[in-house]
Design a protein that fits this description.
The chain is of the alpha/beta class and 340 residues long. The protein has a 5-stranded mixed β-sheet, with helices on both faces. Strands 7-6-8-5-9 form a 5-stranded mixed β-sheet. Strand 6, helix 7 and strand 7 form a beta-alpha-beta unit. Helix 3 crosses helix 10. It is globular and about 55 Å long. The N and C termini lie far apart (80 Å).
Length: 340
Amino acid sequence: MGLIQRIGKPAMGAATALALLGAVLGAALGLSSAAKAAPPVLTLAVADIPWAAPVLIAESQGYFDAEGLTLKVLHHAFGRQSLQQLLDGQAHFATVADTPITFASFARRDFAIVATLSTSGPEHRLVVRTDRGIHTAADLKGKRIGTLTHTSGHYFTETFLRFNKLASADVSLVALPASDTAGALVRGEVDAAGLFDPHVGDALRALGAKARVLPGPGFFRVTYNLVSVADSAGASDADLVKLLRAVRRASELIRAEPERARNIVAAALKFNPKEFEAVWKPYDFRLQLAPALLSSLEAQARWAVREKLVPAGSQLPNYLDFIRPEPLRQVDARAVRLVQ
């Protein structure tokens, strides 16, 4: 007598055993299919700077999870690094200012701008060392000016020079390292530097009375954006809608509870909350696709060609070709104000 019979169960015939085996295999195959159908893990590269506040808030408050988005977030010091990770195939989405987008657009067509997260301008400043005899813009002639190349800081520095009737040839532009942006100025390796927050504050705190900020052009503005790889590379419109809904929720928190939002971002950036209050003021956190974005990209593309920062013979890109408006339109149709 078999074991099953000994514990009071009826004996299992061959047909029944085969049916049970089939059911088990079917269930296993079903589980395998379910595993294959699980949402893919998408990757977002974000820069740890105030411009990216809506994304930093959405991450810290669990808004991405609430949208059912399986998202791995990678943190960088600058948007240029985030965009490069996307271009290298290591991220599906990235946060980045318009200047790195401009440079990438001369060589690549396989990415698109999904939305502008924020705009600002006053946080870009030219910090000069007064102990090097620099008190006005005219004193910059012949001096060494540091800049983080191919970033909005680079564009600001050259805009500042032109605004003050100085050419790039009138000064020595020095590339600053991304790992220690304010350090070259603090150590005296450059006489001035075109910086943005939080690096402006780092330089001023370290140099004290030896440094000051020269007034910049009031018209200077930067757009900070969310970019994506193509649908074929794994970033579907449905995924982007979830991502944008989470970011919009963070933007709404910034408007409804600014102090709470500011403290969340200050904690994420390891900033003193009191000091961060002044840093926070210039930013306009509004999810949109507006004509100002195209104007900024076109102006920077002309600058890059004029200054020979891109290969000779480069043609100006059509930046409408770099806009992917449908996901934002599904989230908030009024936020898309571009005519394509």
